[in-house]
Amino acid sequence: MDDRLSKEFPIDWEEDNYVSRREFFKFMTLASGGLALGSVGLAAWSQTKRGEVRFEPARIAGMTDVEVGGSLGFSYPRPKDICILVQPEPGKYMAFSRRCTHLSCPVNYEHDQKRLFCPCHNGAFSIEDGSVLQGPPPHSLPQVILEVRDDGIFAVGVSHGADHS
Amino acid sequence: MISEQEQQRHRQRAAVYVVLLMFNLTLIILQIWLFAGTLENLIAGKFSVAIPAAVVSVICAGVNVWMLVGLYRMEKRP
Ligand code: FES
Q1: In angstroms, what CA-CA distances link A34 with A31, A96, A162?
Q2: Range of the domain at B70
Q3: Into how many domains does chain B fold?
Q4: Which residue from A33, A72, A94, B38 puts its CA 20 to 30 A from A82's CA?
Q5: Which domain range does residue A38 map to?
Q6: pLDDT category, A1, cuts 50, 70, 90?
């Protein structure tokens, strides 16, 4: 009986399992390739995010709009990217993203302490380069690249801090 | 009907498949871990891990492809 059955339906179960294992292996290798591609994509994206990125120049203030020790809020490059322009010394202008790198509270300029202070969790950033001085922020504030022209102060790009390594 | 010898060969190949499949799965788990870690670091603003992680992930995928090619070759062998 068994012999006749095997002759009429010659299914080799070993072979059958073997094929499905091969299919599974093929599928997993494909998934592995997809993951590798995803990782390469992330690496490529990370390269575009570091260093300086230039945007369309935008006039953010006139020469007399910010006094020494004062600050001025503006948006750059998109309307939702809030930033802060300060003049720590006469003729020296600095601008940073105003969004704290911890939980995005807006930072305030404290001239006497030479820092940008975040009141939410007492985070503080250096006014020299936006680096973290204290508190929970994980990395420095992005710095807005400025150009002082005859007709005012222009934002021309954004630079991610030194710790964006 | 399959001969005893042929059955033995199938069993051996099946065992090789299982071992390689285990290794394949281990590499994929490693790749998932690398991918998730890279994503987490990128969100935290740390960009330095992305390239090494991508290199390791590509190597893992290469090993998997190499194993698959090896299996096809093994199947073709009489
Ligand atoms: S949000 Fe700025 S320190 Fe937490």
Answers
A1: 5, 38, 32
A2: 4-76
A3: 1
A4: B38
A5: 2-46
A6: low
Q: What is the ipTM of this complex?
A: 0.88
Q: What is the mean pLDDT of chain B?
A: 88
Instruction: Please count the structural domains in chain A.
Output: 2
Is A111 in the same domain as A145? yes
Distance (Å) from CA A155 to ligand 1 centroid: 25
For every residue of B12-70, DSSP letters joined together read HHHHHHHHHHHHHHHHHHHHHHHHHHHHHHHHTT--TTHHHHHHHHHHHHHHHHHHHHH
Phi-psi map region of B2: left, alpha, beta (phi>0 left; psi -120 to 50 alpha): beta
What would the two tokens of residue B75 be? 């199947």
Interface of B with A (CB under 8 A): 1-2, 7, 10-11, 13-14, 17-18, 20-21, 24-25, 27-28, 31-32, 34-35, 38-39, 42, 44-48, 50-51, 53-54, 57-58, 60-61, 64-65, 67-68, 71, 75
